[in-house]
Amino acid sequence: MRTATTIEASADFRRTADFVLEAEKLGLDICWVAEAWGSDAVSPLGYLAARTERLLLGSGIIQVGTRSPVTIAQTAITLAHMSGGRFLLGLGASGPQVMEGLHGIPFAHPLARMRETVQIVRAAFTGEKIVFKGSHHVIPLPDGQGRPMRLSLEPVTVPVYLATLSPKMLQLTGEIADGWLGTSFVPERADAFLAHLDAGLARAGRARSDLDICQGAEINVVADENLLAEVITSRKKELAFSLGGMGSRTTNFYNRAYSRQGWQDVAAQVLERWQGGDRAGATALITDEMVLATTLIGTEDMVRARLKTWQAAGVSTVRLYPGGETLQARLDNLGRGIDLVRALKNDHGS
User: How far is residue 208's CA from residue 211's CA, in Å, rounded to a whole number?
Assistant: First the structure.
């Protein structure tokens, strides 16, 4: 397995940049930069491209619909050149709360929009003239003054990762993407995701080895089991927010993902209480099992065992979200995670 992390450019970006630079020294393979309803992903990626030397850098994710497909392609090619070929393009559909509530862009037909965006982006990567006619995008516009054009940038090959959770979007990921940026993942119930990815892979005549399975989880290595309760409790509110607040009452992809993995009743109750304003009640419904199943929280032996389970389930890149109140604490957790993954590689002779 490779190792990765995800950062977001906060108000204290210098501290975040220091974290990334130290993570590179620790041997981290990939740093993804998030874009939700705060900072954009592109600006910090340009900064980090200039400050790092070996680390792969990815957009995790650029929200499809907030930029035209060709703008996304221009951004990807530019970052690929700036970083010396170290850029990975991560795309996601986001959700109606952000797309409609913040950007004023309809969320309808995310599947078709994603497929068309990837097709146009890859066409732009080739350096050929861009001509496309789809249900959402037509390039150039018909009956206008425009003619087919090519980008003046040198062509590049940029891996495309899709952040997806719903069955149809997972199938699309398996069909057209180079990698999957997943979350809410329980390795013992991996078929809730992998069966759909495999269906897409089969549709395109591809194998699982053609897709980088990149899964994320909080990592927090505690000295002994007596300290577990406090760490688990702090994670429960974040999980309740994902199940109850990351979307609307009718559209929450995180909630649906947990539902498909055996927590349908709990997920429904969390959503109902959170949407009703009872956040404490929603948080109280989250069980220890739900936290431990989807994270890398525990003693070193516990985390080592979980990593082996993740690897056995097919995860090829583990995205580590290190816990800790200080920069050093986060780096310590990240470093321990990287060391444990390296040990797995050595055990398997790879």
Answer: 6
